[in-house]
Amino acid sequence: MDTNIARILIDRDRIAARVQALAAEIAATYDGGHVELTLVPILSGAIIFLADLIRHLPLKMKIALVQLSAYPGATTSPRDPRTLLELTGDVAGRHVLIVDDILDSGRTLRRVQAMVREREPQSLRSAVLLRKPGKAPPDVKVDFLGFDIDDLFVVGYGLDYGGLYRNYPHVAVLNPELLP
Ligand code: IMP
Ligand code: MG
């Protein structure tokens, strides 16, 4: 194992099983797949979750990308997210599902929800793989959730520290000595 990884929090098998179950929940919510969806993954953290999730989604779907940066460089404290890439696709009048890796302070998801809402979608829901306890304000609603985790800085399965570890296949806790 990478010596910078302290321990695995959620291994790849548990993630895979949960992602498959989430896809079933999502498909059931959208009329068993009779609704055409637009997924809005928040780059870059959502890429692995998105890639696994959509291959279990038996419905017609398009993807509109958006990129925000919450933790510039090698920091672990959230700041106001910056929009790096505006929505790349049309969401007006469409059923929209925002996809993100983790809900922490909720600032990122709140920003993207507002961005989509402004364009008047037909419906708007959000799917998040991980959620840290109690920090997101109550107005930031999540409809599909993978796992609640402790308030730890995690990497892997799309999540990075200073741009690294996104390809680590498990959700893991970094060696605390590395963190500022
Ligand atoms: P929020 O805006 O504070 O909710 O943070 C959400 C964004 O910050 C996520 O989309 C992640 O990209 C990033 N983030 C939050 N917590 C972690 C973590 O523990 N590890 C890696 N990235 C994180
Ligand atoms: Mg992110």
User: What structural class do the secondary elements suggest?
Assistant: alpha/beta
Looking at how many chains there are and whether they match, the oligomeric state comes to: single chain
Shape descriptor = globular
Beta percentage is 25-35%
Distance between the ends: 22 Å
Task: Tell me about this structure.
With 180 residues, the chain is an alpha/beta fold. It has three helices and ten strands. It has helices at 12-29, 47-54, 107-118, and strands at 5-10, 37-43, 61-63, 66-69, 82-85, 95-103, 123-131, 144-148, 154-155, 171-174. The strands form two sheets. Strands 2, 3, 4, 5, 6, 7 and 8 form a seven-stranded mixed β-sheet that branches. A three-stranded antiparallel β-sheet has the order 1-10-9, with helices on one face. Helix 3 (107-118) links the parallel strand 6 and strand 7 (123-131). Helix 1 packs across helix 2 (47-54). It is globular. The model has no long low-confidence stretch (mean pLDDT 92).
Characteristic key phrases:
single chain, 180 residues, alpha/beta, seven-stranded mixed sheet, three-stranded antiparallel sheet, globular, binds inosinic acid, binds magnesium ion
